[in-house]
Amino acid sequence: MTLRSDIQARAAQLRVRFEAAGAQVVDTPLLQPAGTLLDLYGEDIRARAYVTTDALRGEQMLRPDFTVPVVEAHMRHGAEPARYTYSGEVFRRQEHFPDRPNEYLQVGYEVFERNDAAAADAEVFSLFALQVRGLPLRAATGDIGILMAAVQGLNTTEKRKAALMRHIWRPRRFRSLLDRFAGRAPVPESRRKLLSTEGDLTGSAVELGKRRAAEVQARVEALREDAKAPPIAEHELLALEALMAVRETVPYALEQMHDIAVDLPQINPALDRLDARTAAMKARGVDVENLDFEASYGRTSMEYYDGFVFGFYAEARPDLPPVASGGRYDALTRQLGDGAEIPAVGGVLRPDLMLQLEETRA
């Protein structure tokens, strides 16, 4: 059994290494305002956060992670460039994984750097790879920004693209919308009847629920407008499906995606960024020839990631969550910066899982 004192000692050791890399130690309150911050985490964390109500401060939550409050603090009074490290408890419900702890220690490293995003990505990844060196882990990488670029460049309506963008982190819903917008999915009979009507909805039915008649009417008009739009072209759909299926080592993944870019040219700038990141990683000694890349990786994690994403997994222990994970979250700084923004990337480590794997190996 791993002792809490051992976990704390390992966390301190990891944090010291990040300090040696130039990071400033920061901390955030255990109790965080839930109102605005909770929405930034995404559906999964929203469902698993411990939320309570304070008579004076409104809804509060036990800290589910460090990144969002660290970004919020940096955007208020941080200098540029900046590097931060931290360690402390985070809290998440575990209804679907009862054997996992609801409270555990995280150690993190965050980089706010405007000049060279590729170098910052490589710095973070290589530091994390160094921290977990010697453990039986598989590294996985991806880039949410490539899929986002593909969606934003589709030849379809802005409303359809916005809907797809909202659900990139919900693969099933994304797939359902994609099939619908491509004309692959049959229109439900109830919707077919609704779309066959014209003008405002009328009737004497009592209004139930939270939506008013005007809101329902607006939704009906949106459905009618969408029904008039042509389906997403088959060649675009096939290219998007091929992109989401890319799962190879970095060099072969790049080769495949450059081929796909013939039909999805909007992803070329994102691929250029991946090329630059790969070169920066190689310069830091990362074995990119054998590093896995999955174009759909990160689509079920934090919704604030919008670029490079990575994770380190114990393949022999599929019951364990990632031992380390992270990614780029440029848009999050914009959301919390009141108009200001700065490119940012970071990640977190689980010292308890590291010790657990070491004990198993011993």
Description of the molecule:
This protein is α+β, with helices and mostly antiparallel strands and 362 residues long. The chain folds into 3 domains: 184 residues, 2-Layer Sandwich (BirA Bifunctional Protein, domain 2), CATH 3.30.930; 100 residues, no CATH class; 74 residues, no CATH class. The chain has 15 helices and 12 strands. Helix 7 packs antiparallel against helix 8.
Summed up:
By secondary structure, the chain is an alpha+beta fold.
What is the overall number of helices?
A: 15
Major sheet size, sense and barrel closure: 9 strands, mixed
Assembly type of the shown chains? single chain
Strand content: 15-25%
From the N-terminal CA to the C-terminal CA, the straight-line distance is 13 Å
Strand order of the largest sheet: 1-5-6-12-11-10-7-9-8
Radius of gyration: 23 Å
Please report the total strand number as a whole number. 12
Query: H/E element string?
Result: HEEHHEEHEEHEHHHHHHEHHEEEHEH
Query: What best-fitting shape do the alpha-carbon axes yield?
Result: globular
List keywords for this structure.
alpha+beta, single chain, 3 domains, 362 residues, BirA Bifunctional Protein, domain 2, 3-stranded antiparallel sheet
